[in-house]
Write a structure and sequence with these properties.
The structure is a single chain. The chain is mainly α. 87% of the residues lie in helices and 0% in strands. The protein has 4 helices and no strands. Helix 2 crosses helix 3. It is elongated, with a radius of gyration of 15 Å.
Length: 108
């Protein structure tokens, strides 16, 4: 698989995991199963839970859109850097996914 294919694959993964994080966090906060650790996202949730989910959805779409632009228009060295960043973010979101699965299974 070439570098550009990895960019698209990982951006879809990150966008999906970010969206899952938003929905799972929304459910957890609404049912008082969890607390939000990110102060910015906690503020958005206190303003409006619907705004919170919309923000996470737009962020997921933005991740994919920026990745597509980088896929189409950037030079190889920037693509290397971006791919490295996507790998790190993917690892972070896989850990967050694991935490959500853990607490969901605890309350199920």
């Amino acid at each position: 698989m070439n570098k550009k294919s990895w960019i698209i694959l990982l951006s879809v993964l990150v966008a999906f995991l970010n969206l899952f994080d938003g929905v799972a966090t929304f459910i957890g906060l609404e049912n008082h199963y969890i607390d939000e650790s990110n102060p910015f996202m906690k503020f958005i949730f206190t303003v409006s839970p619907v705004l919170f989910v919309c923000f996470k959805t737009v962020l997921s779409l933005l991740i994919f859109y920026v990745s597509f632009l980088i896929y189409k228009h950037s030079n190889s060295s920037f693509q290397d850097f971006y791919l490295f960043t996507l790998v790190g973010v993917s690892c972070l979101y896989i850990g967050i996914f694991g935490l959500h699965v853990f607490w969901i299974s605890s309350f199920a």
